[in-house]
Amino acid sequence: MTLSIRDTQATDEAEWRRLWAGYLAFYKADVPPDVTANTWRRILDPASPVSMRVATRDGRLEGFAIHLSHPSTWVMSEDCYLEDLYVDEASRGGGVGRALLDDLIALAEARGWARLYWHTNADNARARRLYDSYVPTDGHVRYRMKLAQGASAS
Questions:
Q1: What is the pLDDT of residues 24-54, one digit of tens each?
Q2: Where are the domains of the chain?
Q3: For a tag site, which of 2, 34, 102, 105 has the least CB within 10 Å?
Q4: Taking the model in full, what pTM does it have?
């Protein structure tokens, strides 16, 4: 059947939570249930900058791309940050990740965003092969400092 990419809907919650659990397991991350619930609320809230596109086939979610746009000090328009991209393990290698990235690129271009960026673990070889087919790494190193206020996730 045909793969389809679309905005998420409230009825996707159970399937998204299934994929989200797989995503967290892949990264060995422990995100508290209240943070997951808040993420879902943000995704559905039209006033939130957090959005999600989903890949579906036969009514089943096969992957998601959570992203947000934000102002930049380097360009006149906004940038798009792809925060989370995940493809169900059973669907990997079938073009779902590429379809989600292509969709997000088209969305960013349609909205006039200047740049799309993301990061992944250095040892995530499979994802890096996909990402490298689009653009080489820009060489930046990420630093993350947990702050006492709101630091309930990894």
A1: 999 999 999 999 999 999 999 999 999 999 9
A2: 4-132
A3: 2
A4: 0.92
